[in-house]
Amino acid sequence: MTIAACAASSPDETSRAGDLAGGQTRLRKVPGAPNARSDPFGTPPDDAGGLLNDSTDLNGVLERDALEGACERYAAGAHDRRTTLLCGKAMFFDEGFGTTGVPKPIVTFLAQNFPDAIGKGFAKLGMIPDPRSTESLPLGLAPGKKFGSVDTLAFSCASCHFGRLPDGRYSVGAPNHDYAYGLQNLALAVLPLVALKGDAASHDPDAIARIQPMLDQLNRDILLKGRLVAALLPIGLAGTAPAFPKEAEKHYADWKPGTMDFFIEPLPINDHAHTVSKISPLWGIPRKAEADAASMPSAMLGWTGATASLENFLASFVDLGGGDLSKWPKERLAPLAEYIYSLQAPVPPRAVNVDALARGEALFRDRGCIDCHGGPRGGGLKVYSYTEIGTDAEMARWADPDLDGVLQDGLRFQPGDALTHGIKSPRLVGLWAMRLFLHNGSVDSLDEVFCSAGLRGNVSTKAFGNGGHTYGCDLSVDDRTALVTYLNAH
Ligand code: HEC
Ligand code: HEC
Predict the structure, then answer these.
(1) Whose CA is nearest to atom 11 of ligand 2?
(2) What is the pLDDT of residues 275-287, one digit of tens each?
(3) Which domains does the chain possess?
C-alpha cells in the first residue's frame, strides 16, 4: 500500500490538503494533533492567506495583477493579512531596497547577446526569465541605487530563493540551486574589461576559461563588441573600473551553481574569509514565539546560526548590501517578513511506501537524529562545533576570519545577532526538492549524505570539503533507504 507523502501514522491525524499541481490529493497532519508536540515535522497552520506560492504555472505564482499596488495600500494603512502578504510577495520579487546594483546596460547587453552562454533572462545561468520583461531580464533583479545617472539592477530575494522543483513546479522559498552566481559575476564584471582591454593574462586563468566562449564570440564579432562599448560608455567603466581581486575571480570560477560567498565582491562588504554556502530554503522559518517554545536560543538563521530572527536578517540584507536602513525600518520590512514566515515546504509529489516511512521515522528517533534535529521542521536547538560534526570547518571563520570573537571591520550585526564560530543543524523540510547538501553544497544527494551512493569521494579543499556528518552511514542499506524515504516525505 502506498499513501501520500508526509502522512501521519493513523488516519485520524490526517486531513486533506487540497489539490496540488499534479492533481493528486495529499494527506497532511492536522496542526495540534496529539503527537504534533514531539514531532518536529508536525505541520504548522496554513497561513498562506490564499496566495499561490507553488505551481507549474509561472504566471500563476507571480500573480502580478494581485501584487500590483499592494505595498501602496499597505503604506496607506491597509494592514489586513491579505494586503500584507501581497505586499511582502511584491517585495520578495521586485524590491531592490536601494542596495548596490550592477549597471543595467551591462545586464541587458549580456541577456540579449549570448544565447548559448547566458541565455535570455539569464536562463543558461539558472535564473528564471521574467515572462513580462521586454528586455530579457530575469526574475530576481530590481532597480538598485543609481550609479551616477545610470540605472542599476540589484538583487531581490527571488534570484536565489525562487526555484524550480524536480516535478516542474515553481516554488517561492525554494533555493535556486541552478543559479550560477559565480559565473554571472565573471560575465558581468570580468568579461567586459577583458574583452576591451585584451588583458586576459592579468586575470585568474580559471576565471578566463569560464568566460572564454563569450570572449571568443566578442572577438569574432566586431558589431557585438561595438554594442558592448555602447553599453559601457555611459558608465565610463571601460578604462577606469577596478577589476576584482584575482582571488575573488578564482572563487567565482570555483563555486558550484547554488553556492557562493556573499561577503566578498561584488557586494560592498568583505569579511576576508572565503566561506562557501549553499542557498538555503526559506520554508518553515520559526517565529520568535515558536523558537522560544522549542527552547531555541533564537531562530538561528544562516549556517552559523548567527542571525537571531528573520527581521534581523532582512535589516542586515539592506544594511550590508549598501541600502539605507533609515528608509527601511522594521515596520516597512514587516510585510516581507510576514510573507516569508507564511512559506512552507511544498508537499512532495511522490507517494511513498508506508512501511519504509514508519521504519525511517523510528530510525530518525532511535539513531539520535532527533537529538540534533528535534526542533521546528527538524532544525536543531543549538549550534554545534565543527569538530563534533566533522564537516568542512572554514565556515567557522565567517565574519571573523581570525577567530578572535570580534566582527571583521566593515561588518555590522543587528541587536541580538552574535558570532558563533559553529554550525547549526538545518531544518529538514523540502529535502526531496534539493540538489545540494551540507552547508557548502559539497554533497549532491541525500543518498550520498548517508554514504549510500558509493563513497562521497574525498574532497578536502578548504571551504569545499565534503567530509563529516556521517550519522546514519553505518546503517544497513535498507535502513538508509527507509531514512531517506522518511526525510523525503516532508
Ligand atoms: C545572491 C543570492 C541571494 C539573495 C539575492 C538572497 N539570498 Fe538569502 N541566502 C543566500 C545564501 C547563499 C544563504 C545561505 C547563507 C549562509 O547562511 O551562509 C541565504 C540564507 C538566507 C536565510 C537564512 C535561512 C536559514 O534558514 O538559515 C534567509 C532568512 C534568507 N537568506 C532570506 C533572504 C531574503 C529575504 C532575501 C531578499 C531580501 C535574500 N535572502 C536574498 C543567498 C541569497
Ligand atoms: C550531533 C548532531 C547531529 C546528529 C546526531 C545528526 N545531525 Fe544531521 N546535521 C547536523 C548539523 C550540524 C548539520 C549541518 C552540517 C553541515 O551542513 O555542515 C546537519 C545536516 C544534516 C543534513 C543536511 C541538510 C542540508 O540541508 O544540507 C541532513 C539530511 C541531516 N543532517 C540528517 C540527519 C539524520 C537523518 C541524522 C541521523 C542519522 C542526523 N542528521 C544526525 C547535526 C546532526
Answers:
(1) 425
(2) 999 999 999 999 9
(3) 96-155+181-256 (no CATH), 286-311+339-488 (1.10.760)
